[in-house]
Description:
Blueprint: E1 11-14, H1 19-30, E2 35-40, E3 61-66, H2 72-79, E4 84-87, H3 100-121, E5 126-130, H4 144-147, H5 158-163, H6 167-186, E6 190-195, E7 197-199, H7 209-218, E8 232-234, H8 235-247, E9 253-257, H9 264-274, H10 299-303, H11 311-324
Parallel strand pairs: 1-2, 1-4, 2-3, 4-5, 5-6, 6-9, 7-8
The structure holds NADP nicotinamide-adenine-dinucleotide phosphate (NAP).
Amino acid sequence: MAAGPNPKEAVCVTGANGFIxxxxxxxxxxxxxxxxHASIYPGSDPTHxxxxxxxxxxxxxxxxxxxxxxxxxxVAKAVDGCQGVxxxxxxxxxxxxxxxxxxxxxxxxxxxxxxxxAARAAKVRRVVITSSISAIVPNPNWNPETNGAxxxxxxxxxxxxxxxxxxxxxxxxxxxxxAWEFAEKHGMDVVAINPATCLGPLLQxxxxxxxxxxxxxxxxxxxxxxxxxxxxxxxxxxxxxxxxLLESPAASGRYLCxxxxxxxxxxxxxxSQLFPQYPVHRFTGETQPGLVSCKDAAKxxxxxxxxxxxxxxxxxxxxxxxxxxxxxxxxxxxSES
Length: 337
Ligand SMILES: NC(=O)c1ccc[n+]([C@@H]2O[C@H](COP(=O)([O-])OP(=O)(O)OC[C@H]3O[C@@H](n4cnc5c(N)ncnc54)[C@H](OP(=O)(O)O)[C@@H]3O)[C@@H](O)[C@H]2O)c1
């Protein structure tokens, strides 16, 4: 990891008690950050953050700020006094929204604008935006023969998603585009990370959407993740990458964060081999038609020094965590004979 500013800057994390947010707070503490503004949805539970290693150390000031991301003055209070901001909060669910604009698009887009506006007012040095592969795919205009594997130059096709009622990619794409427009207009230092499906132990009490994808697969789901898949990444690698992007002076633009690009069907095969006791569906044919596989798809992060955790380790740790938290029943391993 690149050497950071010394002493470490005060930082704000939005969505700090969610799956990625909690891992980011944990990793910031491990990396010597002592002044952390943890911004959470009003009334939601941040207790687990205070069980993280180092959170209660006398030198650490982990402060909770209750802020709906749509409440600009509450967001401004959370950001004030920070030099770095990690914008992580955004609605993330496997359920189809009843009112896509209200439930997904507005919180993603206006929330991003509120964070950037607050960061500008507070003269924040850099904002790291948590975008997604859902701002990169689906993109039917990407020609695998001429363009090869997906990279940061691809943008999700909004009209294609809208016509198929795929509102999560719409929300993430519009939010990231809004961030770039705002950054350019105001000359702000913004960097975006675009993680694939994040797996790993759940630090938070509730089940998050990406770990639910693995849970459903273990329970026999035949869903292909056609529109929402490029690959998987350990959530601890995402947190490390977010900090790397705050600390690396030369970081700029978009950073795809995945341990490879491959079909969801191949992922299911890996899960099935690791956990044969669960009824994991065997997919035939391509789950992501035409997707070009690529091992080192996150070239830009690899060049910055990030080393990715093997996907098998991420799957194993997620399954153990889902079992320990009672989301997944233990099953006997079939006998070898
Ligand atoms: N997990 C993945 O595979 C993945 C991949 C790529 C990108 N991402 C992005 O990473 C970020 C975090 O996702 P996650 O996986 O950690 O999901 P998560 O656990 O559901 O975290 C999302 C967080 O955003 C907060 N939030 C949502 N609406 C809010 C609002 N109006 N005001 C304040 N906070 C709000 C949620 O708070 P409450 O739950 O308390 O309401 C939660 O803490 C999101 O931006 C997501 O799009 C995730």
